[in-house]
Amino acid sequence: MRKKPVTLISGYLGAGKTTLLNYLLNQAQETRLAVVVNDLGAVNVDARLLRGKSRQDFQNPVLELTNGCICCDLKEDFIQDIRTLAMDDSVDAIVVEASGVSSPMSIADGFEEEGEEFPAYLDSVVAVADGNRIASEFLEELEQYQTSYETEEEDVINLVMEQIEFSNIILLNKCDLLTSKELEQVESIIKILSPEAELIKTTNSEVPLHKIFNRRLYDYDRLHGACALNKALADGEHDHDYGIKSFVYEREEGFEEARFYDWIENHYPREIIRAKGYIRFFDRPEETILFEQAGNSVAITPVPSVEDSEQGSQIVFIGKQLEEEKLKESLNACIRQ
User: Fold this and answer.
1) Tell me: the pLDDT tens digits for 7-42?
2) Separation CA 118–CA 265 (nearest Å)
3) What is the Cα–Cα distance from 237 to 182, expressed in whole angstroms?
4) Angle, helices 257-267/324-332, rounded to nearest 10 degrees
5) Which candidate, 34, 87, 92, places its Cα nearest to that of 64?
């Protein structure tokens, strides 16, 4: 049996994912698409919208997964639904709208775990990015630089960046709401963070079907290694366009927690655009801490044990005109002596 292609659409709440799905369904006259919609709420509003606007000549099957996320607690149900749809002869292809707070990398992991015998394959990972929101909540924060740290489970701008970084195609949506200068700035940031992704500028999520379907762009290893953060981890110091530079800070000794938080609050370099990595605190050596920063949003979150758990801190920094030695010195000053 022919394996069925799956197009995964990610993007934060309000970015335009459902608008994109409606547009694709109305344009895909010759392709019989099945749709999987994930929503965290008990009532899946997106699925109802799709049912109401689908073409009448072919009833697109719409499966709803609610009260959870397909990247974690609903992963098994999601994979089983994909298996069922892939074995349906009336379905040509499957399109998945992930919830706004889903991690596309974790969803892709589910496909990887199924192996070669699975009747479906990921064709491409599409991120719908709200250009207006990025301009107002990311670029503006870089200019104003009022850094604060968060400890909530979900941190919006870091999640938006992750969705952009792990994608084959990025639809930069709501371009009509941006000035030409803002559009240029947003494009440059996206190209830095995800240099190998195909960037398509859209209004109302309107995009030619051939740009989305049957692309065969997905490759887990290549996609995982393509984003600027992972490139820096693999290659060390690296120069990008637009005067952007990245490097990896590594240290075996643990940070003094109070000093580290003071550094974030009072001394965090405004030149840093994006940072991500694992850190260790001296007083909690057994605990792994995920450190993420995008714009002025910083998240510090305890996570389950990771590989190389005996190692110390490792953080990737990406920024404009970074003073690497000065940054290293300021971080070293946070180490417990």
Assistant:
1) 999 998 788 998 898 899 888 877 888 999 887 654
2) 48
3) 28
4) 140
5) 34
DSSP 170-233: EEEE-GGGS-HHHHHHHHHHHHHHSTTSEEEE-STT---GGGTSS-----HHHHHHHSHHHHHH
Residues 86 and 4 sit within 8 Å (Cβ to Cβ): yes
**Nearest to 255, CA basis, from 315, 335, 330, 329:** 335
Residues 6+ away with beta carbon under 8 Å from 195: 226, 227, 228, 240
Residue (of 216, 7, 227, 196) closest to 96 by Cα position: 7
Q: Which domains does the chain have, with CATH numbers?
A: 4-226 (3.40.50.300), 228-332 (3.30.1220.10)
Helix axes 104-114, 75-86, angle to 10 degrees: 60
Residues 6 or more apart whose CB falls under 8 angstroms from that of 272 comprise 293, 317, 318, 319, 322
Q: What is the mean pLDDT of the chain?
A: 82
How do residues 137-178 score in pLDDT, each as one tens digit? 766 554 443 344 443 433 566 778 788 989 999 999 999 999
| Owner of token pair 């107002």 | 136
Cα-to-chain-centroid distance, residue 183: 20
Residues 6+ apart with CB under 8 A from 225: 231, 234
Q: Identity (one letter) of the amino acid at 150?
A: E
Q: When comparing pLDDT for 67 and 184, which is higher?
A: 184
Q: Which residue has the tokens 């692309």?
A: 215
Which amino acid, 290? L
pTM for the whole structure: 0.73
Phi, psi dihedral angles at 62 (to 5 degrees): -120, 115
Cβ pair 12, 102 in contact under 8 A: no
